[in-house]
Design a protein that fits this description.
The complex is a heterodimer of chains A (about 250) and B (about 325). With about 250 residues, chain A is of the alpha+beta class. Chain A contains seven helices and eleven strands. A three-stranded mixed beta sheet of chain A has the order 10-1-11. The longest helix of chain A is centred in the C-terminal third of the chain and has 14 residues. Chain A starts with 13 loop residues before the first strand and ends with a helix. Chain B contains eleven helices and one strand. In chain B, about 50% of the residues are buried. In chain B, α1 packs antiparallel against α4. The chains are: A alpha+beta (about 250), B mainly alpha (about 325). At the A-B interface, β4, β5, α2, α3 and β8 of A face α3, α7, β1 and α11 of B. β4 of chain A pairs antiparallel with β1 of chain B, so a sheet runs across the interface.
Chain lengths: ~250, ~325
């Protein structure tokens, strides 16, 4: 169980491709994830002190905001950055688990926690470099993204609804779901076209989920708009000419 | 990052217990039957109690302690599972050794073998405990070559000082015990010092640039907005934030405590009238050093995930 399934070439690898260029940080994916997974596969996602002074809760999907900036006079770029489990090909969270509650499914690569056998030792959360696991203080077990395993195979749903809740909810289409083991799939082609990348590839966990980089920032430099008095009048507005004259006078 | 405080008690208490038990096994291997029933019995019971206390306290940090038995199943991949199994297996040779060594079972020819197996299993168990930490590549300060030797050294030295303390209480004090305690305490001090030098010499933890993959050459990434208004699970570590803040002072305290323990041990040789109080003080100092060291060791790391989950300013 806790040992990883043997790797077979052409193996199905279900995962997400997240487009950082168009994510607007609206939190729809996080909210939808919370809503779906609170009624879903594992024990409900708990909340503590929900209406108190320091509310906290279990969320499987959180959206960070980063500012990327080069030289001082360059415009900075804001990137909204959703984070959830990356369903790694070689997840240490699975191999460190002492009970076998954490496991990676051979058939589609989804990493899950069995809430019936997890002892809540939290070792998996130490082993994950992506901070993707959250402990549920009410149920004493570890929680993680299930890739909505109870949606994507649900035959009661229409075909187009058999995607993770976050993907379904995203209003900008920044999230894509599919088989990253198939080089011809829509998600694999997206990754190839847009140079999708892995998080912390040097750590060797081989995340399945990919991020599409935001497009390069405009090369324009930061320029401060000239003060009104420096701008030449077009001669049409007398009143503006008066204020320009007043500005020059007062600037002395 | 969220190591439970009970883990400090566990690794400190069971470390001393395994160290003491291993030394008793070696004493049996060298000298045959115990020279004194009461000394032998007391030492063995104290060792087993410390180990059991540690193992029990380690279950307190589980969300579902009633399922702890499941942890024995994944020995093929999990060092935590291997540790659990090794700790339970050790009780078998230990109890057999105790019964033979103290003469409850007649078979003096088997004392040596049982003692040796007991000592080896103690070492294996402490080795597995250390491996839980040293194999976590996410935490640079744990993923070090010296992590395992330091764990073994602390177990051996606290066990050696404890052996001397118990022996002196029962009037079985020997200069050799003091020598062993002193040498292992100094060895522990040197290894721990080298370990600190090693982690200080390495580059700092992963940068937010590496964790997000967003920066091109010359660009900086800054956390601009956090996804939550309160702490989340990964950020809850108050007791350890305090330890990190005072890391330098705590390191000095550990070294001073170890040196003081070694000094008290030396004094037992010189001031024979005060052997009992001095050896007890030496043990208390060594135990305090181990506890402070664990408090410092367990939280010191700032995980790579913290560089991606914590707001700026908490990433110390």
């Amino acid at each position: 169980m806790t040992s990883l399934p043997a790797q077979v070439s052409g193996q199905k690898k279900l995962g997400l491709v997240i487009d950082l260029d168009i994510c607007v940080g609206c939190q729809a994916c996080a909210t939808s994830c919370k809503e779906w997974n609170t009624q879903g596969y594992s024990a409900p996602l708990n909340d503590r002190d929900a209406y108190g002074t320091s509310p906290e809760g279990t969320w499987l999907n959180r959206i960070h905001g980063y500012e990327v900036k080069g030289a001082e006079d360059e415009q900075s770029r804001i990137v909204h950055f959703p984070r959830s489990c990356l369903h790694c090909e070689e997840p240490a969270c699975v191999t460190v688990c002492p009970t076998g509650a954490s496991y990676k499914r051979a058939e589609d690569g989804i990493v899950l926690v069995n809430p019936e056998t997890c002892i809540g030792c939290k070792l998996c959360s130490w082993a994950c470099p992506y901070g993707a696991r959250e402990y549920d203080y009410d149920h004493g077990v570890m929680k993680k993204c299930t890739l909505c395993v109870d949606r994507i195979y649900n035959e009661n749903f229409a075909e187009e609804d058999r995607v993770p809740a976050c993907v379904k909810a995203c209003p900008t289409g920044a999230r894509h779901f599919g088989d990253l083991g198939d080089a011809e799939s829509k998600v694999s082609r997206l990754v190839a076209e847009r140079q999708g990348y892995d998080l912390l590839p040097e750590m060797g966990y081989k995340p399945v989920n990919k991020y599409l980089p935001p497009r390069p920032r405009s090369s324009e430099k930061f320029t401060v708009a000239p003060t009104p008095s420096e701008t030449k009048s077009d001669g049409k507005s007398r009143i503006e000419d008066f204020f320009r004259w007043a500005d020059r006078l007062l600037s002395r | 990052m969220h190591p439970a405080y009970s883990v400090i008690l566990f690794t400190t208490a069971s470390g001393a217990g395994y160290g003491l038990l291993a030394l008793l096994g070696l004493v049996g291997f060298n000298h045959g039957p115990a020279s004194s029933l009461w000394f032998g019995l007391a030492a063995l019971v104290i060792a087993l109690c410390l180990i059991s206390l540690g193992l029990l306290s380690s279950t307190f940090h589980l969300g579902r302690p009633e399922r702890a038995w499941r942890a024995f199943s994944q020995w093929r991949s999990s060092w935590l599972s291997r540790e659990g199994i090794a700790s339970v297996i050790t009780f078998a040779p230990a109890l057999l050794f105790g019964a033979l060594w103290l003469g409850f079972i007649d078979g003096p020819q088997w004392i040596g073998l049982a003692g040796l197996v007991t000592a080896a299993m103690c070492a294996v168990t402490v080795f597995c405990t250390a491996k839980i930490y040293s194999t976590l590549t996410t935490i640079r300060q744990w993923h070090q070559k010296l992590t395992v030797p330091v764990y073994l050294a602390f177990a051996l030295s606290t066990g050696a000082v404890l052996l001397m303390a118990i022996a002196s209480v029962f009037g079985r004090y020997q200069t050799f015990q003091a020598g062993l305690a002193m040498v292992t305490l100094l060895l522990t001090l040197v290894l721990k010092y080298l370990y600190w030098r090693q982690i200080d010499a390495e580059p700092r933890d992963r940068t937010i640039e590496a964790a997000t993959g967003l920066a091109r050459t010359g660009e900086k990434v800054r956390q601009w907005e956090v996804p939550h208004t309160a702490e989340n699970f990964i950020m809850k570590e108050m007791g350890y934030v305090v330890a990190r803040k005072h890391a330098e002072k705590l390191r000095r305290i550990v070294m001073i405590l170890l040196l003081a323990a070694a000094l008290a041990t030396v004094l037992t040789v010189l001031v024979s009238a005060l052997v009992v109080p001095l050896s007890l003080v030496a043990f208390l100092l060594a135990a305090a050093a181990a506890a402070v060291e664990r408090w410092l060791f367990l939280p010191k790391p700032s995980m790579s995930s913290r560089s991606t989950t914590a707001p700026n300013g908490l990433n110390s």
